Amino acid sequence: MTLDEMPRDRRGIVTSLDTRGAERRRLMDLGLLPGAAISAELRSPLGDPTAYEVRGTLVVLRDHQARTVHVELEER
Length: 76
Known about the structure:
Helix content is 17%, strand content 38%. The chain is built from 2 helices and 5 strands. The mean pLDDT is 93.
């Protein structure tokens, strides 16, 4: 599933990034690397953007950016 589809009350693990170039580099610089744990923390009133917690930091992504991040849900 992609990050924008992940339920807000669950944590996921980043599996891959489906983007290239500067956008990919930016996401990787923000800590969105394969194996990183991530969760949706805050959502704007209109639903876009969303703040995600990754590696102890809040990272804000628009939905079109979150669609490029593939995740697997962590086991409960």
